[in-house]
Write a structure and sequence with these properties.
The longest helix has 17 residues. It contains four helices and no strands. By secondary structure, the protein is mainly α. Helix 1 runs parallel beside helix 3 and helix 2 runs antiparallel to helix 3.
């Protein structure tokens, strides 16, 4: 799913976030974090960081007052095995 969102406008990306399940949203956030950490410092990172900010906002809207706690708990779940 992440590759489908690689070349979309900010508005389309934000709209796609709203349609995602919680797990899809959290998987996207984890992928964006990995991509931001893997980027070479000389590479343009504005797009990745903009998508991280939009994804964080979507999580915070979905879980009001909890900040990113649901995402952090999801990341720490022992049953969360992803094939990457």
């Amino acid at each position: 799913m992440v590759t489908n969102l690689a070349a979309v406008s900010e508005r389309e990306f934000a709209s796609a976030l709203e349609a995602m399940t919680d797990d899809e949203l959290f998987e996207l956030m984890a992928d964006l974090e990995k991509r931001s950490e893997a980027l070479n410092r000389a590479s343009p990172t504005d797009e990745v960081f903009a998508k991280i900010a939009l994804t964080e906002s979507a999580i915070e809207r979905r879980f009001p007052g909890q900040m990113l706690l649901p995402y952090k708990e999801w990341k720490d779940r022992p049953d969360r095995l992803t094939l990457q």
